[in-house]
Amino acid sequence: MEDIADGIDELGVLLMATRAAPIGSARSCRSARRGGLRRTNNATSMQVTSAVLAGMIWAIRHPRQGIVEADDMDFREVLDIQMPYLGPVVGVYSEWTPLNDRSPMFKEDVDAQTPGSSRISA
Question: Which residues of the chain have pLDDT under 50?
């Protein structure tokens, strides 16, 4: 507990398709330790274990679903459970596409309408 005295933990994901969209949360250690059982946690533990908690609550609410992949769960329901533990959640779009800074090492057949898909020619 004393190893992390202060600071902010940023946890997120970079979604990439035709454009990039980084989405994530930033939680301070101070806010993670406020109140109740949370006083022994840090920012990272709050963000990471919130997914486990959300999965367990989802399973209790949907007992007939059995074992499912995360993609088969309603992300809105799961995020509603997680939000109090994540801190501020931010998502932005970037102008970056997979076509930016392509390596000229291999000739590619690239479809500019769907830049995430291409075939490399030998």
Answer: 118, 120-122
